[in-house]
Specification:
99 residues, alpha+beta, Alpha-Beta Plaits, four-stranded antiparallel sheet, 4 strands
Length: 99
């Protein structure tokens, strides 16, 4: 099992808006794409105004197969339109779940 963590650096004061958009659409979409245990996190330490989305997937191959579907899904397009201009940068991390 792989945990995918997407870390989004939002513009100053925009983390709540991005987190709300993720909660409304991306959690359900992640489940539709075969992910498990979705979480939306906001920072309490480190760089300010970050939003993190975590999801567990079966394998990296599963993630790669479904990533293409995600980018062509209408709900993803709605999410991107909603957060357009609110995110400065981001990155993804992949972890093997050991226990």
């Amino acid at each position: 099992m792989i945990r995918v963590r997407s870390v989004l650096q939002t513009k100053w004061g925009k983390a709540d808006e991005v987190a709300a958009a993720l909660k409304e659409g991306m959690n359900q979409l992640a489940k539709e794409m075969g992910g498990r245990n979705p979480h939306i996190l906001t920072d309490l330490s480190g760089p300010f105004h970050r939003v993190v989305e975590e999801i567990d997937v079966e394998s990296l191959a599963h993630w790669e197969q479904n990533r293409g579907k995600l980018f062509s899904h209408p709900e993803f397009a709605k999410f991107m339109a909603r957060v357009d201009g609110l995110i400065e940068s981001g990155y993804q991390e992949f972890f093997t779940i050991e226990s």
